[in-house]
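Q: How would the structure tokens look for this protein?
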Amino acid sequence: MTASTPVGTVLMYAGRTDGAGVLNLITAGWILCDGSVYPNAQFPDLFAVLANSYGGNASGFAVPEYKGLFLRGLDGSDPNQRDPGAATRTAPRPDLPNVGNSGNNVGSVQPDSMEAHTHGYNYYNSYLKSTHTLGHECLSGSTTSTTSSVGATETRPVNQYVDFIIKAVNSPDVVPVGAVMPFAGDLATWAPSLAGAGWLPCTGGKQPAASYPNLYATVSNMFGADDQASFRLPDLRGRFLRGVVGQPVPGLPVADPDYLTRTAPQPSLPYPGNSGNQVGSLQPTTFAAHSHNYTYNNDYWSCAATAIGDHAETNAGVTWTTAANGGLTESRPININVNYLIKAVTA
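A: Here is the predicted structure in token form.
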């Protein structure tokens, strides 16, 4: 690898992926992480890096398929084991002859999950008392029941759609306009020098279309716009980034079950930006639908009279609600803060 941007590098991409957009990416040496299978000889530099880590067949290799997925750092040999389920991760391409890596290896996949938790539940034996001439009672002991199911289709953090792209060739060594990358420094200090290198902060700023014609041609009003002479940059503050589903891969389940109901990023603007299954759309945090078992004791149930003057006990059927578990306001994975930048000009 002689390029300063190594083959196999993955970046986010916030621009067009129609015919012209894909052509611009390929011209710059990048291709979409859409799970496509390429002949080994078509991108030999990339095949040398990936091999069949992401799946393949007898004559080709698959590029990463990040549709609807979040990215997570490989646990590898980390002694702290930040991913407690690393050993049970599954292969990414069960639809291909070579399914790709599983377990604690790059390329493996992990479904959404909810951390084990409990809810407090106080059950009061409310019943209609009756008169007993023979001391008859109907005491049941203990009974296990289930709470009602609450939640959505998956557990996820608040997120925004982007495409992912991968460097496929050594030359040319160009980062395409519209590419998004994390930046670990302080924007207040480094913003001027970053702008000089062609990068702008992804903080939703309004930009004149005439000042950044290539970026405007790439993102248009996908992230919102105030008028036809300006556009908004992506606002990725506080967001997790998720691969846009786009065209689902045949033979694979859609990783984002709610991809068609996503909302626009700037609803207060005249041009609110993309919604649904498109780059830029937003999705709120949710937790997956679930219920809890609980046990209650000494419940009185209806029972027949057994003697003259002996009356039945009847439960009043009171419904109770479990206590909230913790005080958090969102569902989220373990994470670390970065700033995001977008490539605005080729400098």
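The longest helix spans residues 187-196.

Residues 17 and 163 are 9 Å apart (CA to CA).

Upvote if useful.
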